[in-house]
Amino acid sequence: MTLLLFATTVPSETLQAQSATSVTGLVRDETGAPVANAQLRIVGQERGGQTDERGRFVIQNVTPGEHTLEVRRIGFAVKRLPITVRAGTNEVPVALEHSALALDGVVVTGQGGEMERRRLSTNVDVISRDEIEASPTTRLDQLLQTKLPGAQIRMTSGQPGTTSLIRTRGINSVSTNSTPVIYVDGVRVDNLNTPATLGMNVSGGAHQGTATSALADIPLDNIERIEHIPGGAATTLYGSDAANGVIQIFTRRGVAGPTRANIEVETGMETPQTQFQFFNRTRDLLYRNGATQKYSAGVEGGTGGFTYSISGSARASQSHRVEGENNALSFRSGFGAEMGRSGRYQGSLSYNQDAYPRFRNGNSGGYNSIWFVEGGRSNAFGFNPNIDQLGDSAWRALQGFVSKAEALQDNSVRVRRFTTSHGFTIEPMTGLSVKANVGIDQRLTHERAITTNEFLIHTKQVAVGTSDRGTIQNYDRTFQGLTGELTAQHRYDRGAVSIVSAVGGQLFRNDDEQVAYTATNVRDGAQTVTGAGTTTGADATLRVANYGLYGQTNIGLSDKYFLELGVRADQNTAFGSTVGAQYYPKVGLVYELTQESWVRSVVSERWLPKFRLRGNYGVAGNFPRPFANDQTINFSSLGGALAATFGQPGDASLRPERTSTFEGGFDASLLSDRATVSLTVYKSRTDDALLNAPSAPSSGQTAQLRNVGVIENRGIELRSSVVPWSGPSGRLTLTGSLNTLKNKMVSTGNTPVFNLGGLSERTIQAVVEAGQPVGYLRGTKATFNADGTVAKIEQLQYLGKPHPDAFGSMSAQLRLGSRFTINADGDYQFGASSHSFDRHFRFQYGLPETIVPAAAVKAAGGPANIWLDVFNLFVEKTDFVKLRNVSVEYRLPDRFIPRGARSARISFAANNLLTWAASSFDPEVDLSGAIGQGGAAVGGFNYSTDSAARSFLLSIGVGF
């Protein structure tokens, strides 16, 4: 497999010579190391620049005179320098100081415009360009696993492009998925993280193990930064769909200055994680070391009032399964242009495509390779299920059977995505900024499952000579989202008073069209449905539009007291006809204690540089699924004619779920900013929770989604960083977070206990019941006498819960000199449980299992007669600590840089390196259990699913 890198011609000279008046310089930190990607601007002018890899910058066309140079960089304190600009070239050296608390930084998400973090009563997490570039991950949710201290993100499968479980501040809904809303350059994008209504299901009744995720194909190339806010007051301005938080991605638009280009080549290997495999021989049967390679190139710069940033990448890798290859191609561009003296245009465009195979897992029926091997199912095919004990002849027979079965699987996914954003900003008067933004996200997914006659015969699903020639199943989904927003922000400063106010309106419309077309009695070798014996089709359409108006003001007094007030009003097509607009208020307070003179008289700035108290209250929502409010009639075919039955009863009073959050806490920096601590205590309550409530039996109608439930979450969020060593020769930074969570379904409005995931009541399910954690595991529980015989068998018992009591992340960065950097990060969880179907089935099929008393097995006449009564024994704690990523980067000295290049670096990274776990299975891999599109997913089931591959990557990057 070979990829050809497209040739990119990069001019060695700038597009335009420097103007007669310019400001240049070098930005360094306290240790003297150059600071790359720092943003610089001349205050009061639309002139700015950005440092390159060497810390150099150029700001062109600066008006001579007295100015203030402002320098910003995530992780550093804002620097403002008075400078005198004269005709010609002006050299200005800049020294930045690290500041882990970084309250002077500017954020956008949830504020209606730019806002300094010190004015906010809520936390906004920011992931910098450097952190994104240093990460070896290739998809958004994997990147966020250790970069968002208050979020928990778990992959449901190791197969590429599959769904994940994302939670911030607990489970707010039992009818909608917990994935946050995602924006790219102000455009709301598809964030489907469950199976589609019409989609390929290779996981069976347990659902979602290998469903395709819309997060996985958001390209990470050319991203400037990512902002995240959890649900609560921080998301009030996003209204009816923001209770789970908001993630906003900002792409690069380029900066004025010389043209800069970069080329990077990455190569490496993906190898399976084997520590959780029960049999030593499983790796030899199902897995391999897969080669991977990626090529990327980019160019950015600007001249006059026009800036640009363009990048592209191509990636190919062998699957770590014994069959299949994964391919990805992406392109992204961003542009900026001045419009007269007070206006500016900013636009972006991205396109990416992905292709990868899918392997059957979970409860998919028939042949499923992991269940066949790890679950002991090979006994049904005439093999000894203890494959480590097979003799040479039996082992070769098993190898031949599995090798052919894997080669005959033909399930694939193709994704194409196009996103564009266009923003126009004008400043008609001092202090007033008006911005209009419009954009489109279009995502096309094609899933195809081909089941041949040869596969059916080989896996003994049909007999030789059968008339069942096989099937081709195709599923096409087209998502198109339109976003439009108009915002005005005004800044007022007079004396001790400062007021930042914003008003705006937003429209988004999502159209989701799906088509399934299936062919049966298909000849082996066919790739299309044309010529099949029988073809059938189905379609589905989901459409929702939301209109919102919002206003917010942030009032500051003496730069130490801040008051936030805001409200949003929403109208949504999923609301009932009698509901009207829904309102979401917020209020927040900030008190900067270290601005008080009496505080400074008690503690010096050296020991306590910054300390602030904050508290807030806010409301956000989750709107019902499209058309849930409508009364419908179902039609089906009967004898070649149409037959009508009752459909959905409908609810004219249907409204969104409303999650109200109270939170309070403090942020502090200590020991000359060598350490920081941030603590938040929150309590949220979801009223009007949407549940499928049963209709009166006499009505003859089905259940209807209604606002009848109440859910409660509460916990703490603790974040800390410390710099134990810093000096001219380097710097060591350690960070960590701890989050606790208590979740409860307070009320179901008399709705009977219902299932969110899992299998039947006779086995094990994740259920919703008043007074219990949402989605707790319920199944059969056995207790035993002292001699090991069965004392009692109880049905429908509490067996554990899938979400943890505590979770968090940790990271370390060691920089030696100005050229050598080591990064490491990981995450952990404690207090959750999950059921292992693989271990349970191995017991059923006769493999030795010590957790079930031998006396009970003997009395029952064998494991097959007792396995349904002992589900509690196969529910395990899923506590874990994972070392996710380790990377080492070295920036080459000038004498080793290729001629014509500006910089060069070599890096090595390892992903999914080490795991400590309390469970016998991979605690992260989880058939999460979302039954329908957009449905709630809580997890709790380990069932024949791949672990994520471990990867080792070497990359070389050159800048010009």
Automatic annotation (TrEMBL):
GO cellular component labels: cell outer membrane
Gene3D superfamilies given in the database record: Carboxypeptidase-like, regulatory domain (2.60.40.1120), TonB-dependent receptor, beta-barrel domain (2.40.170.20), TonB-dependent receptor, plug domain (2.170.130.10)
Recorded superkingdom: Bacteria
Membrane topology, from the record: Multi-pass membrane protein
Gene Ontology terms, MF aspect: carbohydrate binding; siderophore uptake transmembrane transporter activity
One of the GO biological process terms: siderophore transmembrane transport
Keyword Metal-binding: no
Cross-referenced InterPro entries: Beta-barrel_TonB (IPR000531), Beta-barrel_TonB_sf (IPR036942), Carb-bd-like_fold (IPR013784), Plug_dom (IPR012910), Plug_dom_sf (IPR037066), TonB-dep_rcpt-like (IPR039426)
Domain TonB-dependent receptor-like beta-barrel: 391-835
Residue ranges of domain TonB-dependent receptor plug in the record: 118-246
Subcellular location per the Swiss-Prot or TrEMBL entry: Cell outer membrane
Keywords: Cell outer membrane, Membrane, Receptor, Signal, TonB box, Transmembrane, Transmembrane beta strand, Transport
Transmembrane segments: none
Keyword hit for NADP: no
Family label: Belongs to the TonB-dependent receptor family.
Name this polypeptide is given: Putative outer membrane protein
